[in-house]
Amino acid sequence: MEYTGPTAEMAGQVVACALSGGGDMADLFVEERRSLSLRLEDGRVESVTSASDLGGSIRVTRGLSSLFGYADAVDEAALGRLAGELSGTQTQGDMGVMVVVERAEGKPPTSMPPRVTQKEIPSDAAGRARLLHIADETARSVSSEVRQVIAGYAESRQRVWIATSDGLLSSDDRIRVSLAITVMTQRGGLIQIGRDGLALRDGFRLPDDDEVISLATDVARRAVTMLDSEPAPTGRMPVVLANGFGGVLFHEACGHGLEADYILKKTSVWEGKIGCRVAPEFVFAYDDGLGEGMWGTGACDDEGTPSERTTLIEAGVLTGYLTDRLRAVRLGLTLTGNGRRQDYRYLPYPRMTNTYFGADRHTPQEIIADTPRALYAKSLSGGEVNPATGDFVFGVAEGYLIENGKITTPVRGATLIGSGLEVLQGIDAVADDLEMKPGTCGKEGQGVPVGTGQPTLRIRELTVGGTSLS
Predict the structure, then answer these.
(1) Which residues of the chain have pLDDT under 50?
(2) pTM for the full predicted model
């Protein structure tokens, strides 16, 4: 029988019990999650993993402290015991106390053995496996220089119910389907890698064959193209960030510093800058928890606050921070629907949902044609960011030179070095081609799904680290 969530009466009783020992606020978070994932490597489906999870957690806040506990069971007795134990626990410092009251016998995540054959794949996964084989065969057909293809499929359904001591009752049903492809190419001693994926938020719809073929072809062609790359130049120069992937730069170098826990601790370069000009007047930036089809979208956050689109930068002026309930109260800010958590075993923190720059009037072609010489960063790879300063170093996974208004030579080994404020103040052109990409954001040991995006934009000057000796 499908779990339908706690009744309003039971949720109210649990929250009231948790708060009976004193406190400012209490909330109950109940979650059911089911997932399926497949991974293909070396032309074979290497693993099929299915998992299910059901549990609940309770938080009580008292002054500057939080008490938190979770149970791997959601019946009234288990949640009642958890609430009772929390109500009688004394707070110990600002980080709070974790109490695990009950563990229920449940099915752990199960994995099939490596090197499974098609006959061993469960019937509900067979159609998904076929898509991975299509991706593998398509990518390998692009070039004899393709050495490896790794393809992964994942689907999940997360249902949540939230009740708070101020009478809020919320629920959400979040379905996500994704397919990711990595292609490795080799020519002599040079190895290059291309990555991309599809992210679907319209129910359990599988990607169709044409979508998979198009994606695999594009990723493989990019990896092959980079075999012709030359060492990237070094120095200060204009940088054009392509739409989509470039959005991770704003997310990491600026977005985290706008989360209210960093503001509260005064460890953000953006603390105290509301109302200050941080970018040209044509720059707008948003965190949009309601964005249709975006990876981080939901009806509410994990504290039950309705999702919304929060304007972070308006006409170049910093206008907002991202809050959860605890930090909003402490800072005297409004709720923005950004209290998020990995699952019921974790406390919520202020987290981004879908963060992006708004589009402007230029076309990408106009921006490139207006650029005599620059680095064109088509996609970014891993990097490091200091949220206190916004300083960053990001690798460029796919890069090209722009020369005399045209995209020319592919380059490898480029890194972008700077700060979030430097990037914002240096933007001098924004295109009309906004595109979003899916991702997982890590913070406080938790991963949550997010969307990052932007239109094509140009930064007047940025430090580029490269490998060219000339």
Answers:
(1) 93-95, 105-119
(2) 0.92
Domain that holds residue 338: 231-465
For the domain that residue 74 is a member of, what is the CATH number?
3.30.2290.10
Out of 209, 228, 247, a domain closes at 228
Q: pLDDT tens digits, residue range 129-159?
A: 999 999 999 999 999 999 999 999 999 999 9
- 311 domain-assigned: yes
CA distance 64 to 62: 6
Q: How many domains does the chain have?
A: 2
1 belongs to a structural domain: no
